[in-house]
Write a structure and sequence with these properties.
By secondary structure, the protein is an alpha/beta fold. It contains 3 helices and 7 strands.
Length: 118
């Protein structure tokens, strides 16, 4: 079984774990929150490296895009350096594509924001 873990700087109160089948593969999917504790997140990442199939970073990005520029975010990069063997993602691919389109979609379909809301 493949094992995917999201290490988040968010609240541990939102942690979860479940097993799902995707494309014929059984996946154990977990989220582990660190309540904003960068040291705890780094320790978790070191402990998971080489032991799980993939790791996601939550609550922190590696980069921030503004127009055609890309800026490294120090905390995200520090955490990413803790992982040397396991594939690691921060969700930026989805954020760079889906989030931009989602705003337009919501504006067109739901009429949001309405006049006076902004």
């Amino acid at each position: 079984m493949k094992h995917v873990v999201s290490v988040s700087l968010g609240s541990a109160g939102r942690d979860f774990e479940f097993i799902e089948e995707v494309a014929g593969n059984r996946l154990l999917i977990q989220r582990v929150g660190t309540n904003g504790d960068l040291r705890q997140a780094a320790k978790l990442l070191r402990g998971l490296d080489g032991k799980v199939t993939a790791i996601g970073l939550g609550g922190v990005n590696l980069y921030l895009r503004a127009g055609d520029r890309r800026y490294q975010l120090r905390d995200g990069m520090r955490l990413a350096r803790e992982v040397r063997r396991t594939p690691l993602v921060d969700g930026s691919g989805i954020k760079d594509t889906v989030e931009k389109e989602l705003v337009s979609w919501v504006q067109e379909r739901a009429g949001w924001p309405r006049p006076g809301q902004v």
